[in-house]
Amino acid sequence: MTHSNAYIKNAPRRSRKAPSAKTRAARTAAAPGRSRAAMAVTAALLLAAVTGAAGARAASAPDTHSHAAGRARAAHVLRATDTAHLHYVSASGSLLYEQGSATGTLPGSMRAHLKLGATFTGTFTVYTRGGSISGRGSATPRGSGVYESFAGSLTVTSGTGRYAHAHGRAGLYGTFDRNNYALVVQTTGELSY
Description:
Layout: H1 3-10, H2 21-30, H3 36-60, H4 64-73, E1 77-92, E2 95-104, E3 108-115, E4 120-128, E5 131-142, E6 147-159, E7 167-177, E8 183-192
Antiparallel strand pairs: 1-2, 1-8, 2-3, 3-4, 4-5, 5-6, 6-7, 7-8
Helix pairs in contact: 2-3
């Protein structure tokens, strides 16, 4: 045995690095005699590895659109049904000032200015523990006699406290007592704040 052969024989063996997933996939795809189905599966795995890496990079990148959408979704939406029993306080011509208590989703007290006519119109403010909610509404009266029913809608236009950005629409129903001007008002709808 020559010196050079002895050196080669006794030389430390290089540790081989395991081939990467890409390399293994490429070798498998290039191997002769492989079926087209096996090659297609290999290609699909390779594509998944590449797109997965791209997806991971995209996920780690800041997304300003989703942050803005998150802020927009931070608004609260409340499905509310409430009933108010209002009594007469004072009047000026056909304009009545009424107040009373409200019960239901947003309990508290309520004040309203109601204008009587072929259509009832008015403004209101509900005072709750979290703040106040104000708006306007209109309703069409039905029937005749002492008790008159009405139906219409109201729009929430503003608020204070927790409800500072309140807005929404609701159905408006109730009865009006022409003897003592008492109102029973029921509302049902969505409030955003």
